[in-house]
Design brief:
The structure is a homodimer.
Chain A: H1 17-26, E1 29-34, H2 41-54, E2 59-63, H3 64-70, H4 79-97, E3 102-106, H5 112-124, E4 128-134, H6 138-144, H7 149-154, E5 176-178, H8 185-198
Parallel strand pairs in A: 1-3, 1-4, 2-3, 4-5
């Protein structure tokens, strides 16, 4: 919980509501969703983005598909190509966050060292990095198999499949853990929103109104 | 001069100085320097960036080297690879500009259709695209040859060299033309700054102070 020093009790917020809102609007951050294929990263991203927009933030979503089309065409799924792709997303996320944007990324990003490299880059430029582990297990993801990818991987039609013949290195100290295999979307979304509020990155809905 | 409808005489600016400043700070734009190798794009970029920062803008520079390292490693100088590189820069420039950033790019970007594709993307998302032709001629650039690249190209040690065995397609309707082969840097910089001021994208230094 690296951002815990930014926790605020809300006391005194009513005194300088507008100032606080403006300050909040300046602090860039990156919510970095990581987890297995089919764990719910994109669904969470789609739910979170409008919440951030509604609270007055500029928001950009960098999801795997958009980035593979516009930044990483031609890259495959070897360890080196995955790393290149994830580092590129980190590079762009950092450019945006250091200009005050709230960035959400949704990629498997299976390798710990690569996620940590992005954390280092982003924190080094003064933004907040929130590693959010979308932690549905392999068995849970395979049981749902929304896109049929697990069946293809089992049938040998896909190689370098994360969790099967390519590793997923779980975050050791993620800011948020989301048990997406057993929890409803609303509850998962609430976990992320509450973390951002408590870290001082998102204005609580009723700030300055409560007694 | 696509941005000319935003020209302002300055009249009335003193009446709403702060409001105007805030509005200006929101409008993202991209100054897209294009021109031959050695024409002065990077020098102009380095001179322009601190001026924009001093006038209260968030600024990001996307120059060829930074991008080739972080976004386009592995790409060469074939037409297809150059296009991919330039379109990636346009993609990132657009993400930044639509979040209010003043972006400066410094690349040869030799192909007209590719520059126009970026203009289309960036204008389509509500930002202003300023094509700034750094127009030192091939002969002027070769005579200076600061990095020795022209000599290498003449000696056959470099192929796909813009202006020699790869075309440079001059802008047809650039917002700014900079005769960088015959003009001092200060005068060139002044051309760009005045354009941005007149287009309403940059606060004049003494706005609201003059009678």
């Amino acid at each position: 919980m690296r951002a815990s020093h930014q926790l605020s009790t809300g006391a005194g917020e009513a005194l300088n509501g507008i100032g606080a809102t403006e300050r909040l609007a300046e602090q860039g951050f990156v919510v970095w969703f990581t987890g297995l294929s089919g764990s719910g990263k994109s669904t969470l991203t789609e739910a979170l983005a409008p919440v951030l927009t509604d609270r007055g933030r500029r928001v950009e979503v960098l999801d795997g598909d958009v980035v593979r089309t516009n930044l990483s065409k031609g890259l495959g799924f070897s360890r080196e190509d995955r790393d290149t792709n994830i580092l590129r997303i980190g590079f762009v996320a950092n450019l945006l966050a250091r200009n005050g944007v709230a960035v959400i990324t949704a990629t498997i990003s299976p390798y710990r060292a690569t996620r940590d490299a992005n954390r280092h880059l982003i924190e080094g430029d003064g933004s907040v990095f929130i590693e959010a582990h979308v932690a549905a297990t392999f068995e849970e993801c395979e049981a749902r198999d929304v896109k049929g990818l697990y069946a293809e991987a089992r049938a040998g039609k896909r190689t370098m499949f994360t969790g099967l013949d390519d590793p997923y290195e779980e975050p050791l100290r993620p800011e948020v853990v989301i048990p997406s295999g057993t929890e409803l979307l609303d509850a998962s979304l609430d976990r992320v929103v509450r973390f951002l509020e408590q870290a001082g990155l998102l204005q609580p809905i009723h700030a300055g109104v409560s007694p």
